[in-house]
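User: Could you write out the 3D structure of this protein bound to PMV? I've included everything you need below.
Assistant: Certainly. Input first, then the structure.
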Amino acid sequence: MTATGAAPGKVILFGEHAVVHGQPAIACTLTDRGVASTCTADADGPRLDMPEWGQSVRPATMERAVEAVPRAFALALAFVGLPPDAQVRVTMEGNLPPSVGMGSSAAFSVALLRGLAAFAQRPLTDDALLAGATQLEGVFHGDPSGLDHTTVALGGCVYFCRARGDAPSVIRRVPLPAPVHVAVGVTARAGNTRQLVSRLKARAQAEPRAFAPVFDAIGALADEGARALEAGDWPRLGVLFDVNHGLVNALGVSTLACELMVSRARDAGALGAKLTGAGGGGAVIAVCEGEAHARAVASALEGLPEVRAFATALHA
Ligand code: PMV
């Protein structure tokens, strides 16, 4: 038998990093980029191949595995109730570059769980899928806020705030009156989310009076951003992007490449532009006036060295 699963990539519109520290954030899935899994019965299994990531692995437990993918595979088998020696071969395919801020590990986790659950004939509820994805994302990122895999699992535009103390997590869909036309630029250099998050955590602990107001201000932008998105007010969205970029830069996660891409997008007439994802190499997103404008901004971004860019429309 053959079973399949899929999950889209995502872009963060507001609140990367601050979301780890309890602030709200907004992310939206990409319609034309993601990861898919195909699971087939195979007596030589379990085995997982993902040629794009150069991976061909057997599952391995936490103690034995150094690499994240074999560990995530072992966790996923257990989560859907398959034995560690399950006779299954998983082939993963995708068009999301890893480690640039487009949610590749979240899409990998959700697509793998969906495929294996279908193979095991044990469909997962949304809550179970989120619980499983939390475990797998923990392997990739250490302490993920949950923003990436929640968005990728639910699809569309999602407002998210992680649980804090007695307060439960907040997950709400943001209705969009029309698609948001954006250009996304990606550098060749990968960022390491786990390292960036833990370095920022150490800085924020050492300098709480410097960082707490920045996190609060980014959280306020997510709330305002939700209003701008719901109203379809793209010029306002652009202004809020610009302010969010300045604040995320203050957190020390931007790079020369990100700054160049943000400036180039603004010079090309973007309504606003910001880093998207964890940074440290990474990606930027620019809100544009329409489809043709988004294509023009993307091609301006591609004029920069080692930058690949695309135009896309974000949907609710
Ligand atoms: O760059 P990505 O796709 O790994 O996004 C990370 C988002 C962070 O806010 C930096 C981390 C998190 O867990 O939310």
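The chain is about 40% helix and 25% strand.
User: Perfect, thank you.
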